[in-house]
Amino acid sequence: MDLNEIIKLGAQLFSQTNDKTAGLGQNQVVAALSQLLGGDPDGNGIDLAGLVAGLNGAGLAEIAMSWLGDGDNQPIDSEQLSQLFSSDQLSGFAQQLGIEQEEAQQGLSTVLPTILDKASQGGSLLGSDAGPSGILGAISKLFGRS
């Protein structure tokens, strides 16, 4: 599965998170997700490594490790999303979709773990140049794990 397919899957999942997001078109959600994740509206240039770095910088490295690893994904809540993205980013994302920020954050808390999980295998991220140990290995070193 390539990154564009993963973003489309994320958009589809986002549209299924609640009643407010059910009427959103896939292209609209793909564009909003892509821009939030540093790409263009077509889903190109998404920076998943930057997302992982942002999780780490926000003190959420354990969550990132669970998403990248092969086990269960830890959840992320609205407060943690606010640590990862600025309020301007979150409100802009919600406005782009024409929904309340609460609904946007609910959708993101479902979609982000899935996107990173599908974009990684054994700790290596699609398109990443993190080397043989992958991003999961780099994050593990922050915690003194090998």
From TrEMBL:
Q: Which organism is it from?
A: Ferrimonas pelagia
Pfam families in the record, alphabetically? YidB
- Protein's UniProt name: DUF937 domain-containing protein
